[in-house]
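User: Quick sanity check before I run a bigger batch. Here is a single chain. Can you write out its predicted 3D structure?
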Amino acid sequence: MRRRRRVESAATYKLCSLLLLYPDEELLGAREELLAAARELPRSRAAAALARFGEWWLAEDELALQQHYVETFDLHKRSGLYVTFYGEGDRRERGSALLRLKRMYRAAGLPLEGGSELPDYLPVMLEFAAAMPGGEGEIVLREHRAAIELLRENLRARGTPYADVLDAVCLTLGDPSAADRARMLKIAAAGPPQELVGLEPFMPPEITAGTEARR
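Assistant: Done. Predicted structure follows.
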């Protein structure tokens, strides 16, 4: 039973990872295949959330999807997909969080050298959660649960169907802890912290080398 749940969770994380990517020509060309995979998931609230998203995603015009994605994730800091930004903002501490994530991926055989995204990009974190055996990859999602929940709430407030994808992620993870809820409220009230003027850039060379971040 536990093994089956892990397989189902991995499939959900993998689908969510792909559905949260920018809808370029390649991804849009795979819409039918991805949504067929979503329909094969066992009946659950997470599967129902992905089905709702899929109905919209499949019916929408390609250009409209691309515009909606940019407006949702790229133009608003409170609904960006770089999860350490929510708690650390542009402070130096964010560099430590990014470096830790990158080392975890490398140790697990998921290096990001030459990639185009930072290691806290939610689709990358979901890919890691899906790829690791035994559910061990969920650690990166659980450690950043407060930020993921905040993103979920912000997407819901914006009225975007992408909130359904975050619903699927969070429902698969289970209920957040009291500490997660408290941290989410604290971050939401304060907003992302900012680096003090005059300090060095927050990302260490190991993170910035070969990485062309969207943010």
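Residues 2-19 form the longest helix (18 residues).

User: Great, the batch can go ahead then.
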